[in-house]
Amino acid sequence: MKKKLHSLTATLVCSLSFACATFVPTAQAADAAISTQNAWVRWLPNNLPAGGYVTLKNEGDRNVDLVDVSSDDYGSVMMHQTVSNGSTQKMVMVDKVTVPAHGSVSFAPGGYHLMLEEAKHKIAPGDTVHVKLHLSDGETLDTPFTVKSPAQK
Ligand SMILES: [Cu+2]
Question: Which residue spans of the chain are classified as CATH 2.60.40.1890?
């Protein structure tokens, strides 16, 4: 009962306020649901390809796929998965990675990773690079990645 009264009040306030017009789209955008955590790049010397790692979290009710990646800092960015084959490991390209509803997926050493090649400028540990994560719901997350040396965690 108390809750109902409260929401009636909110509706009334809302209808009298211009702020309402901007409030509604903001609430919908929040539904988009994917956020990133712990984004970092394992830097290697001599312009070698670097691995990018990040955790994607989905607060929404629907699965969302990561469908493409791009960066202004690298000429080539790909989604890879390390697959072990008995005693050997190889990397395969992946077209998409699903972030399950109310779940998360991690890009981490030994599993999914971003393969970052052809750096467009000098990149060194301590730098921040940006990778755009393109999602199946139409969102693009321009995500800052901290560049770390292999010795750092
Ligand atoms: Cu790779």
Answer: 34-148
pLDDT at 86: 86
Alpha carbon of 50 to ligand 1 centroid (Å): 8
Alpha-carbon distance of 89 to 26, in angstroms, equals 45
Cα 1 to middle of ligand 1, angstroms: 56
Type of residue numbered 38: N
pLDDT in tens, 25-34: 443 444 569 9
- Ligand 1 centroid, distance to 134 Cα (angstroms): 19
Give 48-63 pLDDT, tens digit per residue: 999 999 999 999 999 9
Mean pLDDT of the chain: 85
Query: What is the tens place of the pLDDT at every residue in 60-91?
Result: 999 999 999 999 999 999 999 999 988 899 99
Q: How far is the CA of 76 from the centre of ligand 1 (A)?
A: 11
Output phi, psi for 70, to 5 deg. Answer: -150, 165
CATH number assigned to the domain covering 34-148 = 2.60.40.1890
Torsion, Cα 124 71 83 59, to 10 degrees, reads: 110
Nearest Cα residue to 54 out of 75, 79, 74: 79
